Amino acid sequence: MANRELAKIFNEIALYFEMDGAPFKPQAYEKAAINLETLSEDVKDIYKKGGREALEEIPGVGKNIADKVIEYIKVGRIKEYEKLKKKTPVSIDELISVEGIGPKGVSYLYKKLKIKNLKDLERAAKAGKIRNLPNFGKKKEQNILEGIEFVKRSKGRFLLGEILPKVQEIISELKKLKEIKQISEAGSVRRRKETIGDVDILITSPNPKKVIDYFTVMPGVVKIWGKGPTKASVRLSVGVGIDVDLRVLPNSQFGSALQYFTGSKEHNIILRKIAIDKGLKLNEYGLFRGPKMIAGRTEKEVYAALKMDYIEPELRENQGEIEAALRQARGKPNGLPKIIGYKDILGDLHCHSNWDGGNNSIEEMAKTAQKMGYQYIGIADHTKFLRIENGLNEKQLIERNKEIDKINKKFQASGSKFQVLKGCEANIMADGSIDIDDKVLAQMDFVIAGVHSQMKMLKVQMTKRIIRAMKNPNVDIISHPTGRILKKRDEYEIDFDELLKIAKETGTILEINAFPVRLDLNDVHIKKAKQAGVKMVINTDAHKKEHLRFIEYGISQARRGWAEKKDIINTWPLEKLIRAIKNRED
DNA sequence: GCCGTTTTCGGCCCGACTGTTTTCAGTCG
């Protein structure tokens, strides 16, 4: 899609203007970039259908930026962007990823030392050339070198699945300190974004100094970036190293600070504007009328004082949640969704067993699921086309089903209602056919089908391929529908709207794959699927029993996509689930 | 550069910390 490329270009244009200190233009381009990126429809299609007018309907896109979008669609380039790049030919992205370097620094370093990229920067810093520049110094030069090391090692952001367990560990470690009254993660971790830059933790305590002192000498701290009376910033030696910011505040400000530091930035900007409209001021210290603080102890209090319902952190991306909360508080329709809760899942339908080379037996997987409080588990082993994953052929699938029957009898004999469902994750071949005979597929409780080969097909063909699979009456679920791998591989070229249309027609269920590198569908897709009335299922794709806990990340993603229990079939009890799978009109 | 039932011109979110200064710019969140 052109959307992401345009967003990237506009973000860079914003940075170029920021280098020159241009007022307001940077924010305008940034805003347009954000809105383009979260758009689920291809701008090319928007332009084709509605022309310039339709483009200007996109928030943040006015006459000027629309011109640039059109130029990009028609010529594949944007002249002004090329001009800016020529004037300052630097890898901005690369350079500003170094802690302490911003657009102004990039501009200055280029003018003075012709620094264009990370390599130039490293060379200049090592040669001691930076310390002599005005506004730079020895300390800053050292920080730059350390920043470069970090960028090289981490290459950007961390997966939520890598970070969240560590954050929970840090919090429980800090909780040991009796001076700590309240504690919570904030920032993108609390919003459960799929990737995380760094971690924010907020604490209330009558003795901030003690807390800060304890935090900065915690096991695993390898560097203290800064340490003040109420704030500290450290790097932890977790994996390649992650930065953690800690703030200590009084109880009276915990809500407003949590709100403020949870973000997103875009969500907060709108909230502050709403405050201003009401003659109030909102910052991390509270909500104020003149000098008087009128809210701040809890987040609920802050939202209520702004005349809106409480908004769950996963929704705070300025994607309509504020308007919905305002409507809801006024008792009007189209309020906030009752998003799915973290304890609403009753079973996991995409689990591999040792039959296809997974780590654990069917029984071990089932028992772990039972312990998690599930009512059922679906075993979906790979099928024969995926030789590398020990995919099962028809005969082996029938054999495996017999074992599942036996295990179910055992559960029954022990008085448990827990049930193992017979499934498979079959392969959608290049022509859209399935690699397992229909007669055997028909014997399954459910059939998942997924693309595992030839992922670089053209859009029309890939769309046709998946549609043909959806139209197979034996196929119930499409696994990881867009195929992206975070930090590694983009989604396939597909016409997602067309897929939704056919999914609705055929009653095909789309998977929200909870595996941390997948999280596929993403939040935007989930929201679209929900709006189209397409049902979804949250699955972990577990290859061993420890993976079953990944369900949490899938739920987060579903929440970020505004999904409710009624949209997610594995929040339903077994009988209703089976009905939904088999009687597809349901 | 965008936006508008108070506006087609004049606004556009806010504060702390660092490293460098000697009153502040840049960066970050």
Brief account:
The protein is of the alpha/beta class and 586 residues long. The relative contact order is 0.07.
Describe the structure.
The chain is of the alpha/beta class and 586 residues long. It folds into 4 domains: 2-154, DNA polymerase, domain 1 (Orthogonal Bundle); 158-249, 2-Layer Sandwich (Beta Polymerase, domain 2), CATH 3.30.460; 253-329, 2-Layer Sandwich (Beta Polymerase, domain 3); 347-582, Metal-dependent hydrolases (TIM Barrel, Alpha-Beta Barrel). A 7-stranded parallel sheet has the order 11-12-13-14-15-16-17. Strands 2-4-7-6-5 form a 5-stranded mixed sheet, sandwiched between helices. It starts with a helix and ends with a helix. The chain binds one DNA strand of 29 nucleotides through α2, α4, α7, α9 and α14.
Kindly provide the radius of gyration, computed on alpha-carbon positions and rounded to a whole number of angstroms: 26 Å
Question: Would you report the number of β strands?
Answer: 17
> What is the 3D shape?
globular
Helicity, as a percent range: 40-55%
Structural class: alpha/beta
Write down the overall mean pLDDT.
90
* Biggest beta sheet summary: 7 strands, parallel
Give the class-level CATH name of the largest domain.
Alpha Beta
Task: Give the full name of the CATH homologous superfamily of the largest domain.
Answer: Metal-dependent hydrolases
Key features of this structure:
Beta Polymerase, domain 3; globular; 586 residues; Beta Polymerase, domain 2; 14% strand; five-stranded mixed sheet; DNA polymerase, domain 1; DNA-binding
Q: Topology of this structure?
A:
Blueprint: H1 2-19, H2 25-37, H3 43-57, H4 63-75, H5 79-87, H6 92-96, H7 103-113, H8 118-126, H9 138-154, E1 158-159, H10 160-174, E2 182-186, H11 187-190, E3 195-196, E4 199-204, H12 208-216, E5 221-227, E6 231-236, E7 242-249, H13 254-262, H14 265-277, E8 281-283, E9 286-289, E10 292-295, H15 299-305, H16 321-329, E11 347-351, H17 362-371, E12 376-382, H18 394-413, E13 419-427, H19 438-441, E14 446-450, H20 459-471, E15 477-478, H21 496-506, E16 509-513, H22 523-531, E17 536-539, H23 551-560, H24 574-582
Parallel strand pairs: 4-7, 11-12, 12-13, 13-14, 14-15, 15-16, 16-17
Antiparallel strand pairs: 1-3, 2-4, 5-6, 6-7, 8-9, 9-10
Helix pairs in contact: 1-2, 1-7, 3-4, 8-9, 13-15, 20-21, 22-23
This protein binds one DNA strand of 29 nucleotides through helix 2, helix 4, helix 7, helix 9 and helix 14.
